[in-house]
Each structure stands twice: as C-alpha cells, then as structure tokens.
Amino acid sequence: MYWMCLPYGYVLDDQIVITGNDYTKKGISGIWEILSTESFSGYFHGQQDLVAGARYRPLSIISFAVEQSIFGDNRIERHFINILLYGLIGLLIFRVLSILFPEKETRNWLVSIPFLAVILYILHPVHSEVVANIKGRDEIMTALGAMGALYCVLRYLSSGKMNWLIFSGLAMFLGLMAKENAVTFLAVIPLTMYFFTNAKMKDYITALIPSLIAFIIYMVIRTNVIGYVFDSGKKITDLMNDPFIGMNTGERYATILYTLGQYIRLLVFPHPLTHDYYPYHIPIMNFGKPGTLISLAIYLVLGYVFFKLWKRKSIYAWAIGFFVATVSIVSNLFFPVGTFMNERFIFIPSIAFSVVCAWVFIQYGWSSEMKGIRFASVGILALVMGAYIFKTYVRVPAWKDSLSLNGQAAMVSVNSARNNCFMGTALFEEARDMKENDPAKKLELLQEADYYVDKSLAMYPTYSSANQIKSGLIAERYLRDGDLQRLLTDFTTILNAAPRTEYVPQFLDYLNGRAPKDSMIDFYYKAGYELLTKTKREYPTAVTILKLGEKIAPDDPRILFGLGKAFYGGGDQVQGTKYLERAYQINPALRDIQ
Q1: The Glycosyltransferase RgtA/B/C/D-like domain covers which part of the protein (predicted)?
Q2: pLDDT (0 to 100) of residue 53
Q3: Do 272 and 392 share a domain, yes or no?
Q4: Is the domain of 72 the same as that of 110?
Q5: Domain around 66
Q6: If you ran DSSP here, which 8-state letter would residue 241 be given?
Q7: What angle, 0 to 180 degrees and rounded to 10, lies between the N-to-C axes of helices 464-481 and 503-511?
Q8: DSSP symbol at 104
Q9: 372 sits in which H/E element
C-alpha cells in the first residue's frame, strides 16, 4: 500500500526537521547539535519556544542526519526506511501479543488474535500520515521504543533474566528520545502486567525501575537542553500554536472532549481523513452541543466498562486502559500540544482498538459453533480489511507534494485557517515556479491562491503566515497592473493586522527608485509613524519602514521625525534625539506634533 509513496516529495514539517534544518543538512557532523538543542532550533536558528513545553525529540532527526550523509537529499531512501520501520512495529506488536495471547489458546496463528490484530493495525488508514510523511518517523520510533520496553518486561517476567530489564530501560529511553509519548507506557506496562500475568508487587517495582530510570535520564537531558521542565513562562499568543486562545474554560474542555470522541470515530470509521485539524476545522464546542454530549456518553460508557470488568481481567478493560493512557498525553487535558488533534496522535492508541477487533472476531465469530455466524464474521472481517486497503490506497497519494496534500485537505478542513493558508501558499509557489510562457495559467493559479488566503484571513485576520503570502500576492498583482495606490493601501492593511510581515518591507525596498518618490514618502510616513509608531507601537517595524523612506529621502523632515519618535518609543533615546533634532531644524513646526 505504501510503496507508491517512495518518490513522493517533502511536505509539512519535513522542512523543519530535514530540508530546512541546518543541523540535519550537516549530516553526521550535526548530530551533537541535534542532541544539544531544542528540536526546532536547526530550522529557526535558535530556540523559539513557539509551542508550550518546547520540543526535544532528537532521535528521528539524528536518523535524518545520518541519511543525509549517506543518501544526500534523496527522499526515496527516507520513505523506504519509514515503510521498513512500519513493518518492524507490526512484527514487534505481533511478538508482544503472542506472549499475551499464546497460540495454543487460539489454535491456528492465521486466525489468532496476534496475527489478526497486527493485520488490522497495519492496514488501518489512519496510519497513512505517519508512514507517508517522512517526519512521521518520530511516531514509529517512539512506538518501537515503548512497545519494545513492554516486550522486554514480558520476557523478563517469563524468564527471570535480568538482561531483559536492561533492554527494557534502553528501549524506553530510545522511545522517549524519539517522542515523549513513550512515557505513557509507565502506565501501560503495569496495566498489562495486571491483566495478563500473575505478577506480585515486587515484580511491578522491579519491572518498572529501568523505565523510570530512563524517564529520569531523559527529563534531566531535556531540561538541561531546553532550559526548563514544562513551562518557559513565555505566553503563547499564536492561535496556530495554541488553538484554545480566546476560549473560556467550558469551551476549552468541551472542545477537548469532542476531539477525544473524534479519535474513537476515526478508529471505527476512518473517513474523511485530513492532515489538518487546526482552528477551526474543529469548531469551538460547549457542553450543550450534540458532538460534545455524544463524546461524553462514549467515555462514560468506557469508564463504566473498565471499572466493571477490570477485576475480571477482561480484554475490554485492558484495551480501554491502554487507549486512555496512551491518548492522554496528546489530549490537551494536561497541557496544550499545539493543535486540537491529529490522526498521527492515535498511532499507538490504535493498537488497543485493533486487539479488541481481533478478539471480538475470534471469540464471537470464528469460535462460534454456528457455521452461519462463522462465515458472516469472516465476510465482515474481509470487508473491513478491503475497506481499509481501499481507503489507504486512495489516501496515500495525497502525500505526493504540498499541492496535492493541501488540495485534498481543502475539501475536508474547509474551516481551517491554516490549511487555507497552506493551500494558498502551495498555489502561489506553483505559480512562482512556472515558466513565463503560460501567463494565463499563472494568473489562474495566483487568483486561486488569493481565494484561499483571503479565506484564511477572514477566519484569522492576524495570521502571520497568511499575511506573508497575501503580501506576495499583492506584489504579484502590482507587477501585472502597476496600481501603486492599491498596493500601498493593501500593504497598510497587512501592517495593521500583522506588523511584522517580512515581505512587505522587502518589496517596498524593491519599489524604491522605481515607484514615484512622493507617493512612497507619503506612505512611509503614514505607515511608519501614524500607524506603526502612534497606533500599534510596533517600534522595530516602524524603524524598518521609515528607514526605507530615509533611503530615498534622507532629508525629508516627516521621515526624520517619524524615525525619531520610533527610536524613542523603542527605548533608543540617543538615536531618537538625533533624528528629532534634524527634523526640527528642517521644519520647526514639527515640534507641535504630539
């Protein structure tokens, strides 16, 4: 199912961890920097603390660096390794389940719980994001580490050999270094021991010590690298990094509960699929909306089943415990994860779902004494597997490139400001890279890009990325129609919404010497002083804009006055005084302006 993605390109966060990451591009020589810095630092040229808790997930990035040294920028090998690791996690899950459900209890391995659970797991379409997106390797690696730790504990319990405990600690550490989600297996391991073994209290303690040590070592390293444990104290103000901004407490928890219900829905009925669950593809919910109430009812039932059956060591109770434990870390209940939800977040929790499906088939279908039920259960299982294969087959091509990925998401995540922005960006880049021999097609792409970017800005007017692309589209339109006044009016709108939009001063610099001087000076004064200095108090940007005016009119008193006020506002009194005195010398009347 996944071989077709071998030649696919880099998309989404591949740029952050591979193509745009300075440390990854160094290859093996960049490994120490990957280990000793926050995981976004190689892309952003330093730790930005853009999301709550920052990110320290070096293992997959190290693998990309090693590949860079061996294969260069070739993406085929990277996709191949993802597919290989996906197969490996399937084998590991099979080994774990073979211990939990010995073959003798299920007669034939072809119709055994371990085999069927793994097949259902591997075929499930919800995993397409993890496998087809190269960056998704961190999910596979953390699953390998976490399940590896569980496997080693089970081997220790059956053999009593201490080396398995050492291996379990090592596996847990590697899982944590891939992604912190592995920590949930500090709950999954004792949970599994309770349901499937006759372990005594000392066994629980002994089995968990290596994983606890691994977690402590990881946290010490993580804290030393990023500088804090969980919270930098820096307020997250970007809706795309904290989707709960602007919500009250009730709305926040109702929305979280709704997304938890959506995870169940995706496991049962994985359609439609999308890579984008940003605001507001997931709408703001409250406890009066049906979606929230249905999710609440589902989890109340799951809670009831768990507490009703856990003493009987029921497989259903174990699966519920496994799912809740592993989904908890990505639920937003305890700390924001940067988005409402994601399909890749249930890469590990879906193991429990697959096991329950296999269990139900064996217990109530294949083991039935009635031929009709047996045949019907086989038919249903075949139908489900066929549907999984078909859905995966049609979903994987979305990951071919940014245009196809965002194009498919545009049909699903219609209310996502992020995806509308990304779709506009992909179309803009497609138009920009076109040959000049098809101006009509280029114009069509730019107009379509403008449509999506405007949709994004209508949802989130201060969205920096959307304003950046909008400024590029405005510039492209100016190059076609030459309407300077319209360009400057639209740039003023962008500076008002997102003052730090980088492309605006870049294109203004291009216009200097090309556009009428008086029009440009008037714009620089109004935008730099009246808007950015007086109204927005965005002093660094104001200085940048006014400096562009100084380049073409070094003795214009309004520009000098604006620079003086902007420097003063930004705390540079020396520069502020210098510019104000020059302005007053040229036009003393400026002293009366407040």
Answers
A1: 69-221
A2: 66
A3: yes
A4: yes
A5: 3-119+127-184+199-226
A6: T
A7: 20
A8: G
A9: helix 371-395
Q: Scan for tokens 């279908």, then name that residue.
A: 365
Domain tally for the chain? 2
> Does residue 312 share a domain with residue 166?
no
Residues 263 and 327 reside in one and the same domain: yes
Chain position carrying tokens 């920096």: 464
- Name all contacts of 482-487 with Cβ < 8 Å and 24+ positions apart: 484/511, 484/515, 484/516, 484/519, 485/519
Residue closest to 262 by CA, chosen among 252, 250, 253, 271 = 271
Question: Is the residue at 559 inside a domain?
Answer: no
Predicted local confidence at residue 230, as pLDDT: 73
Residue 546 covered by a domain:
no
pLDDT of residue 106: 46
Residue 483 lies in a domain: no
Residue 181 near residue 146 (C-beta atoms within 8 A): yes
Distance CA 284, CA 279 (A): 8
Contact between 168 and 152 under an 8 Å Cβ cutoff? The reply is yes
User: Which pLDDT value is given to residue 235?
Assistant: 82
Specify the pLDDT at position 111.
Answer: 85
> What proportion of the chain, given as a percentage, has pLDDT over 90?
89
- What are the counts of helices (DSSP H) followed by strands (DSSP E) for the chain? 27, 0
Predicted pLDDT of residue 49: 66
How many other CB atoms sit within 10 Å of the CB of residue 431?
Answer: 19
In a shared domain, residues 217 and 290: no
Residues 140 and 8 grouped into a single domain: yes
CA 511/CA 480 separation, integer angstroms = 14
Tell me how far apart the alpha carbons of residues 267 and 353 are, in angstroms, rounded to a whole number.
7
| 303 within a domain of the structure (yes/no) | yes
Last residue within a domain, chosen from 396, 425, 455: 396
Sorting pLDDT into bands at 50, 70 and 90, what band is 153? very high
Please give the backbone phi and psi of residue 240, each rounded to the nearest 5 degrees, phi first. -75, -10
Q: Which of 99, 86, 103 is nearest to 164 (CA)?
A: 99
* pLDDT of amino acid 594: 66
